[in-house]
Design brief:
The chain has one domain: 2-enoyl-CoA Hydratase, Chain A, domain 1, CATH 3.90.226. 46% of the residues lie in helices and 11% in strands. This is 3-hydroxyisobutyryl-CoA hydrolase.
């Protein structure tokens, strides 16, 4: 197999169709998305989507540990801190957001096989697919609060489609979701035994009626979800739904943060970890997330992505994002020194600045389509 970080091929299928396959192939970095991966992926997906002989698109990964654990944020760090091209963050984020938006916009059925870690930008890529499959090994998370960023790549859109306040809880705590959690929350569509992967691809190849391609792909996945189900454990979200609702039942961010922090002594380590993540996370990020999701409930996908781009560039210009990456991934001391020590200390105008465009003139993503073709 090639050592290129992303691989493309086309698999012959019945009815004169082909399956366009993407394999993320950088297992050493848990398939973190780099700039050199984004551009060819965006170009190939859009080309396949305009090709009537492509019956469906499959996005998967090599290796067993991760679908994709996010972006190459160390490269962003270098650009933010003067160790690299200062224009790199803007170029990288614009292309990353175009890619995640483009996956949502695909008219061609797109199957994302989310085995292993699905985190950060990997979650954005996965969430845009029309058919999202998890396995017993899947673990989903948007843990950006740990590094002073915020859940992006369309997270405003997909977290606001979770039950009331659940998206806020997941985003504020950066908690890891099991495959069962992903199914019940609507963040995945099917759970299938990872060992059946090759059989699923073969079944897709045997589809001979592509007149309703989405339905055809779904019929295959439904059958395997029944005949070869993934061995899933319980859902912590279901088990603790009332506890989460009570903890987040507040009219202000301060009230919600206080409610979640009171879970620190909960006997279930999962809830205690959620509280600890928020307590150690970036106070400014907590404010950004709260405003991002509460203010983005009625935005279109395009509006969500355009707004996230503004916030992300402002995070690159403010100190906490670089500090979080330094502490977690560069120096690895795991002791970030946040600009403010607590949520209560963050001034409103400081948060406001993260929602202002850092450029003059038109929005760089203004040409994104509003609806599927």
């Amino acid at each position: 197999m090639s050592d290129a970080p992303i691989l493309f091929d086309e698999i012959e299928a019945a009815g004169g169709r082909r399956i366009g396959r993407v394999r993320l192939n950088n297992p050493r970095t848990l398939n973190a998305l780099t700039f050199d991966m984004l551009e060819p992926l965006y170009r190939q997906l859009t080309a396949w989507d305009s090709d009537r002989t492509i019956g469906c698109i499959l996005i998967e990964s090599t290796g067993e540990r991760a679908f994709s654990a996010g972006s190459d944020i160390v490269a962003l760090y270098r650009g933010m801190t003067g160790q690299g091209d200062p224009d790199y963050p803007a170029r990288f984020l614009a292309l990353e957001y175009r890619l995640c938006h483009a996956v949502h916009m695909l008219a061609t059925p797109c199957l994302a096989w989310g085995n292993g870690l699905v985190m950060g930008a990997g979650m954005g890529l996965f969430s845009g697919a029309s058919h999202r499959v998890v396995t017993a090994a899947s673990r989903l998370a948007m843990p950006e609060i740990k590094i002073g960023l915020f859940p992006d790549c369309g997270a405003t859109w997909f977290f606001n489609r979770l039950p009331p306040r659940l998206g806020l809880f997941v985003a504020l705590t950066g908690i890891t979701l099991s495959p069962r959690d992903a199914l019940v929350a609507g963040l995945a569509d099917r759970a299938i035994d990872h060992g059946a992967h090759a059989e699923v691809v073969e079944a897709l190849q045997r589809i001979d009626d592509w007149h309703q391609p989405h339905a055809a792909v779904d019929r295959v996945l439904r059958r395997f979800a029944i005949d070869r189900p993934a061995g899933l454990g319980p859902s912590r979200l279901v088990e603790h739904v009332e506890t989460i609702r009570e903890a987040t039942d507040a009219a202000t961010l301060a009230g919600m943060v206080g409610g979640i922090r009171r879970l620190a002594d909960h006997p279930d380590p999962w809830l205690a970890e959620a509280a600890a993540n928020l307590d150690a996370g970036c106070p400014v990020t907590a404010h950004i997330i709260y405003r991002q999701l509460r203010g983005g409930r009625y935005l279109s996908l395009k509006q969500c992505v355009m707004r996230e781009f503004k916030i992300a560039l402002q995070c690159c210009r403010h100190p906490d994002f670089a500090e979080g990456v330094r502490a977690l991934l560069v120096d690895k001391d795991r002791t970030p020194h946040w600009h403010f020590e607590s949520v209560s200390e963050v001034p409103a105008d400081y948060v406001d600045a993260h929602f202002r465009a850092p450029w003059d003139g038109d929005h760089p993503l203004r040409d994104l389509p509003d609806v599927k073709p």
